[in-house]
Input
Amino acid sequence: MIVDGSEKSLKDFLDDLPPVDQVGVEARATMLATRSIKTTSKAWAIDMAISMVDLTTLEGADTPGKVKALCAKAVRPDPTDLTVPSVGAICVYNDMVKVARAELDLIGGKHIPVAAVSTAFPSGRASMEVKKQDTLDALNAGATEIDMVIDRGAFLAGKISQVFEEIKIIKELCGNKAHLKVIFETGELVTYDNVRKASFIAMLAGADFIKTSTGKVAPAATAPVVLVMLEAVRDYFALTGLKIGVKPAGGIRTTKDAIKQLVLVNETAGPDWLTPSLFRIGASALLNDLLMQRMKMRTGHYASANYVTMD
Amino acid sequence: MSEFEYASAPESKEIAKIAASYDLFIGGKFVKAKKGKSFDTINPATEEVLAKIAYADKLDIDLAVKTARSAYTKIWSKMPAKERGKYLYRIARILQERAREFAVVETLDNGKPIRESRDTDIPLAAAHFFYHAGWADKLEYAGVGSKPKALGVVGQIIPWNFPLLMLSWKIAPALAAGNTVVLKPAETTPLTALLFAEVCQQAGLPDGVVNIITGDGITGAALVNHPDINKIAFTGSTEVGKAIARSIAATNKSATLELGGKAANIVFEDAAFDEAVEGIVNGIFFNQGHVCCAGSRLLLQENIADEVVEKLKKRMSLIRVGDPMDKNTDLGAINSAEQLKRIKEISNTGDAEGAQRWSAECKLPTKGFWMAPTIFTGVSQAHRIAREEIFGPVLSVLTFRTPAEAIEKANNTMYGLSAGIWSDKGSKILWAAQKLKAGVIWSNTFNKFDPASPFGGYKESGWGREGGRHGLAGYLTSESKVKK
Amino acid sequence: MSRIDVHKTYKLFIAGAFPRSESGRVYEVKGADKKFLANPAMASRKDLRESVVAAKNSYLGWSNATSFNRGQILYRIAEIMQGRSEQFVSEICALEGLSSKAAAAQVEEAIDTWVWYSGWCDKLSSVTGSLNQVSGPFYNFTTPESLGVIAVFAENKPSLLGAVRTLAPIIAGGNTAILIASENYPLPAITLGEVLSTSDLPAGVVNILTGKTSELSPWVGSHMEIDGIDAAGLSKKQEEELKLLGAENLKRIHRFTPINHPERILSFMEQKTVWHPIGI
Output
């Protein structure tokens, strides 16, 4: 056990982390964005990115119909081309988990997990009782991935152990049934130092994945934020031998954006992380752009949005 | 292992229209060298000959200086300052327009990665002309008195590591201040200077204001010794710098010398490690380490040394060495066979003197001149690799126990060009910055350059500054200095 | 019988003390009337070496002193000189053959020169440094910093003013100095040493040698611990020889028009540029 969960042991651990220099980390991310990916690698990267997408709908207006349509897309992103892999997961609010699970099972998507956002997503402002119940509801409905939010208020108020405890409790609820992704809402943590600290709090408390954002706050999954999180999982692996996944979410809309993310993974955490079990991209619009780029690569001409499905 | 190997993404050579041969650029025209001698410039990544270059000797230099003198007295010194400035603006714009072409030619001739020539050399060169263009009609604010005057004809000699950028560091302030120039690019990298001659033509720059003569060290020495030169501006080795200082001892010539370095890059225990590692890599592997201000001596606080070296080795394994024209290449070719030999020679003393060598595993091309990124650990101040400028991708790692010891070791050199400090503690950074005997201190960053930022060294790293108001002053007369 | 005057023995000024030359040599200095005036020490290369050691030892303290403190001390030198004016006037009259009015004018100008450079001490970086507007998230500033040990060949004449206007800017910038007095008119420079020793100036910041310029000059030129030279008192040929030797460690060697000018300070300073990122 690296920390015993006490405020002091956590604080000591976090204080030992090296600081992050904003200008330096942004310069590194900018440099990596100049990597040029061509031909075979690009085809490979597009398919990898598709299989990493957590296809997401998190709207007040979500209906069973909308969720079912999304499930169809998740299983067969391009109905005209069955070589396209299915996505990494479906991500919904907990009341939609049941619908999603049933639909996926029905249409040949048994292998696709359903992820539920949890713990009073997106703000995280509720009692612990409510957060626990929120999680239990999702688990009971068949979610095998839980995307919880941390209590940013507690984090910013310096109540580090409270943040740690909440993650630990939710992790215990997940048990063997579900993977836990911990969302920081990096746009509210603001500094890279905070992102690094939050990453370690979450990993120490048992997160399987660390995730940038809810998608409701901008800025979200910027390249330097993801870079800092990838450095954190790399260092945590060196420390413990455990591989923690990373999930950028929010703001990744184009194939170019997605490939830049893969470059970050490749050159920071390393190629071992280039798998849906260790890297996911939370997105909705991205998938269609990936599909259009894929069509372009196959046909040699630019694709039309009319040829990709709109769900 | 994934299939995520970056396919090579070569920049097209088509844009670079390199002529089979180049003459000297004197008086606004390309003219043949009087004796008709020439030499080859090659692509150090492939050893292919790129072009035949005219070799200038004394007679050619005399013509170039006479032409520059005449352009100075008849045209340039009489032209209103604001008009002079406009020519510099034009040059800056044309460099931007032709940036891609310049980047490709620079990479072919020098061996540096296209990413660096594209993102650093060429944009900075254009920026230098922009910056100095604005000075042309504001010289009375340059801090050398109310009636600053140009010096006259300036002889400029530049190195092969940043060919066009060094040209811009030299020509832009000289012209802005009202001087005319005769510039000699390095023997191994003359192409972008000759391309720049075309830019002068396109800009309509009056004939003779910029003259470009090509050749080797003998050509350079002849330029230095020409009696009608008012100032020498030289960037290159300390050895040659000293020779120039001796050559002009009995003359009225002034000089700016940007010479060698052996910069300490100091990492304190409270540094941002990941960014420090990036800074270390950028400090020594940027431009294959062919940088006078390279952070070639890494000073690590002893209690973090192992951790940082570990991180550094991992990071070095990611450095992509190879075809400079590939947009994904991080480390290109060593500029010449001669330089590679020198790098290897000094590096070998590291082994012989008991330091531990480690090189990143990488496949080096069979043709051309290559060196894997290399570090030596267990280095002490007494090792040759800790004292001599290697000018290649070779880093010496030393340790220190206290901040005072770091400063002592950092300053324990005849050089004083640059230094790096990595720490999260503001007061410590300022303390170290004050104590370090170096002209450029990069704290929590490294190898940053800007036309507005003066650059130049203490001690045997040179005389004077280039860039900023301080650099400009070196091209103007001062009322306090004796005219001999 | 009238009283016999007590004559002064003119000695060197090294590390705050007034030693004779280690060589035991002196040379005769005559007044404008060709009569014997004094036998000042003829410094040797070893005296030079000792002076450089003294200058080097005092460098850290002097260069790190606050500019305010340095300014105070330079002003203190002016104060003490003012009190000794008569002595300087009589030395200058005897040596240079000037009228007492002209000699007094020289002394006054020398005193005012100290005052002028005193005021420069804490304004150098404000006036000649800069905050540079680089394109990028960096704070970037340039500030002048002292060079190290500077040797000064005082102008031959005016004997006092020539020494003061070369010396004052050197120490105003935080350097320490070896003043090689005018060979033919050295006496006011030595008396200046007496002023300096009672002016709160730390020992070794200024060291004063008298003797043969042509003998000392090559040793100054080749001494690797000397960082810069004001060649005011050298002949063209000596300066040329000095520059050849000085190239070995790229000494900053200058010569100025006989005016007070901030560039006399700045030529013996380096401009240091510091970068730091701006971020959170």
Notes: The radius of gyration of chain A is 19 Å. Chain A touches chain C through seven residues (CB under 8 Å). The longest strand of chain A covers residues 114-118.
